[in-house]
Protein 1
Amino acid sequence: MAKNTDLTGMKIPQHVAIIMDGNGRWAKKRLMPRNVGHVQGAKTVEQICEDADSLGIKYLTVYAFSTENWNRPESEVGAIMKLLRNYLKDCIKRANGNNMKVRVIGERSRLSEDIRQRIAELEEASKDNTGLNFTIALNYGSRDEIIRAVKSMAQDYKDGNIDETEITEDKFSAYLDTADIPDPDLLIRTSGEERLSNYLLWQLAYTEFYFSDVLWPDFDKKELINAIVKYNGRDRRFGGVREE
Ligand code: FPP
């Protein structure tokens, strides 16, 4: 239950990032295969996009599949990929219906050709939408993203496109997969776990964290509101001091 569902006068975080955790435990509690938890988790993703948009959140970024998730049993990886394949296909219609701009971050070469094709179609079809900016992290790992950015910057240096005096935090950010996306204001991780798991390490430098005990398939608008209320109670100083 939300302790306070009235967000009047509250600051709505511009960008919310989510680590969706607990699908497996949700299914286990119901004596069902883990994949049922992922299917339910995908439904929660759809609903939360609508809820986030309705609350005035402008950017939502979810961790769907990490570079480490390939280490799961082959059958589970296959089931998640199948789910993502279907989700990406259906998402084109939904994105355009909801005016949602969808992007995918992460390293794509390890994804199958048809999934890469669906991502390209979805990004192209939704690129002019002006509502929620929805980003899916897929085969994403923050360290991998940073190394790819460094390599790309090094190549530009070698080609004479930049010199070392131009290397700033902003310039480096523009080499990351999240170029053009503001840093998250609020990070939510579900299921009671409290770690970052290689998610947006650079981008979360000044982000507020909210750890929820709710398992991802049960996450809903009320719990999103709880996170926003908690966020409003925080004093963000970005390394400075509070003005009295
Ligand atoms: C974490 O739960 C969840 C994942 C690694 C996969 C996330 C995938 C989805 C929510 C579905 C597809 C995504 C989209 C964008 C449609 P877990 O399996 O680690 O749960 P556990 O910790 O309880 O085992």
Protein 2
Amino acid sequence: MSARILDGKALAAGLRAEIAAEVAAWQDKSGRAPGLGVVLAGDNPASRSYVTGKEKACAAAGILSREIHLPAAAGRAGILTAVQALNADETIDAVLVQLPLPDPAIERDIIEAIDPAKDVDGFHPLNIGRLVLGQTTFVPCTPLGVLEMLRRSEVPLAGAAVVVIGRSQIVGRPLSFLLSQKGVDATVTLCHTRTFDLARFTRTADIVVVAAGRPGTLTADMIRPGAVVVDVGVNRVPDPARPAGYRLVGDVDFEAVAAKASAITPVPGGVGPMTVTMLLRNTLDAARRREGGGR
Ligand code: GUN
């Protein structure tokens, strides 16, 4: 294996220590801790595990978290009531609704009910619009984590050809805007399930970011030697040998791609820890902006 492993876990640990120090300083000044409100509807095991991870990271950074856990049957009205309660809670600076919801058809309505000033996921149309316009906003945590990771790993971005695979609202689409904005200056190609001959694009890319949600999406024959590969995928593959009964794999054929790439993120321990770290940073930013009278 020749690629440098971009260790998100180690990078995130350093960043979280910096954020914890900033949180402590903010608390000294303001007299309270920043607060994150989380709405979890239903019992999707992956969502439960993500939310627990976010709450633990908050506690370690000195951020207060308040979870509203609703039954899957709570529906639109129940989830809206929870979001409104968190919007109105003065001790809560940041609100997120864990996705997917049991009924994905209501996700847009629910996200639009979040106070844009507390929208630390950056999913509200106002914040997405600001991102597209290059204005100060909450940027979705996974794209922000990918950017931070590339920057801290000193991967050149200005002028680089980046191929993003996956056009989701959570990762691919916002990442394409983030990487192409002034100051980052990458040239971005956004590929997706209907892209004809994906390898035609990935083979010429300096950086490939894979956020397709499907194991084996990127294989070694699809990259050029020396490319940088970022794997955003988190897939549970049944594995009876593991206590949990599954193991996590990304979207990239890791061993073979790592033998050809110059740098690659592992799964787990790559982008995931960076995503949670960016949530902490966005929550602290939300608290600062609210105490400062908003934007
Ligand atoms: N589900 C998967 N990723 C995310 C995320 O970043 N935020 C929320 N709210 N839900 C998710």
